């Protein structure tokens, strides 16, 4: 059995641990041959790959990033055609591959589903710091991003308190507010502004003023995709991302002067950005990623293709792609309602 491993989309802490888990189980236990494509689909197209074995993955678990690289190069030019799928299958035959392990988020697992429907053997490993992929309770990378954001909250709170300032921290997440919600709860933020739940500027300023009136300095966590009530579009930067979507970012820079103008409270913004993706993964993400890689290798041995290694409770379960793609896992109303009562 010869298996190709490929990472796609943005990097996420734990990807190295996932590859290590898959290789140690697949090569050492099951006797597979495994190769890793350099920089995702670019390496697949260009014939650039490395052999994966125990020495290759030695010591990878604590390392951030992804040692074989990742990219947003697509597997084909949209829209997908029968000819494009035929070309991909022919390329796999050239590599002598019996199947693929695809490590990625929503876009990657959507590709996995398309390939499986087209008869290509594929198993998915779900990663994304955004935690917005259905079919799994948590994706690896999310816990690390939350931990980094929580530390940033702790640091911003001390400087904010020293100057009696309101601090506004912007975190990633695109259209899902999971990072903002969890980091805000962990750091004791006075409000968390999520893409799923628009709030008015008047309401945000009322929360900030209430914190001041209690003798405290407010700290607001805002997800990059948050929209003020009445606004149709999120705040974006120039250009498009690798998937052709508007580049989100800058909502904290937009909110801070508005809060200061309305409340008279000196307000500063911080955009955490790609710091959330970098550095060593947390222990939780290392374990989750390793277990996902092991489950993927076991699925290949059993011929249990067309599924993704998702976390359900404390178990890794193989989830059909149909349950994971085509829908965004957003913060439920009840989760937001339970914390909103404590804002301000």
Description:
The active site is at residue 130. Keywords: ATP-binding, Cytoplasm, Glycolysis, Kinase, Magnesium, Metal-binding, Nucleotide-binding, Transferase. Mg(2+) binds at residue 106. With 344 residues, the chain is α/β, with parallel strands linked by helices. It folds into two domains: 2-140 and 281-323, 3-Layer(aba) Sandwich (Rossmann fold), CATH 3.40.50; 144-277, Rossmann fold (3-Layer(aba) Sandwich). Helices cover 40% and strands 19% of the residues. It contains eleven helices and 13 strands. The protein has helices at residues 15-29, 41-46, 54-57, 82-95, 106-117, 142-163, 178-187, 201-213, 251-263, 283-302, 333-340; strands at 2-7, 33-37, 49-52, 99-104, 122-126, 166-171, 191-193, 219-223, 236-240, 246-248, 267-271, 307-312, 315-320. A seven-stranded mixed β-sheet has the order 3-2-1-4-5-12-13, with helices on both faces. Strand 7 (191-193), helix 8 and strand 8 (219-223) form a beta-alpha-beta unit. Helix 6 packs across helix 7 (178-187) and helix 8 (201-213) packs across helix 9 (251-263). The longest helix has 22 residues, at 142-163. The radius of gyration is 22 Å and the shape is elongated. It starts with a strand and ends with a helix. The mean pLDDT is 94.
């Amino acid at each position: 059995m010869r298996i190709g491993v490929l990472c796609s989309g943005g990097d996420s802490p734990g990807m190295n641990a996932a590859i290590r888990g898959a290789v140690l189980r697949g090569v050492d236990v099951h006797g597979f041959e495994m190769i890793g494509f350099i920089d995702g689909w670019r390496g697949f197209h260009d014939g650039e790959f490395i052999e994966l074995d125990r020495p290759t993955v030695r010591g990878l678990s604590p390392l951030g990033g992804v040692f074989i690289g990742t990219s947003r190069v697509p597997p084909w030019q949209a829209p997908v055609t029968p000819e494009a799928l035929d070309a991909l299958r022919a390329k796999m035959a050239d590599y002598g591959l019996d199947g693929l392990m695809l490590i990625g988020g929503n876009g990657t697992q959507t590709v996995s589903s398309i390939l499986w429907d087209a008869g290509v053997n594929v198993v998915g490993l779900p990663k994304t710091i955004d935690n917005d992929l259905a079919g799994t309770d948590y994706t690896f990378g999310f816990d690390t991003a939350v931990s980094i954001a929580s530390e940033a909250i702790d640091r911003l709170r001390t400087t904010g308190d020293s100057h009696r300032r309101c601090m506004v921290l912007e975190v990633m997440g695109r259209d899902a507010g999971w990072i903002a919600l969890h980091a805000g709860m962990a750091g004791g933020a006075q409000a968390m502004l999520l893409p799923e739940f628009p709030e008015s500027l008047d309401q945000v300023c009322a929360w900030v003023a209430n914190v001041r009136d209690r003798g405290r300095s407010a700290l607001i966590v805002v997800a990059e995709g948050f929209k003020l009530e009445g606004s149709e579009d999120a705040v974006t930067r120039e250009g498009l991302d690798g998937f052709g979507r508007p580049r989100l970012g800058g909502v904290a820079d937009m909110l801070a002067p508005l809060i200061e103008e309305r409340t008279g409270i000196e307000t500063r913004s911080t955009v955490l950005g790609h710091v959330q993706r970098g550095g060593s993964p947390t222990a939780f993400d290392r374990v989750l990623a390793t277990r996902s890689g092991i489950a993927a290798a076991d699925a290949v041995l059993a011929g249990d293709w067309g599924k993704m290694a998702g976390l359900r409770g404390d178990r890794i379960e193989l989830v059909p792609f149909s349950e994971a793609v085509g829908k965004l896992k957003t913060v439920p109303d009840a989760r937001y309602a339970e914390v909103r009562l404590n804002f301000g």
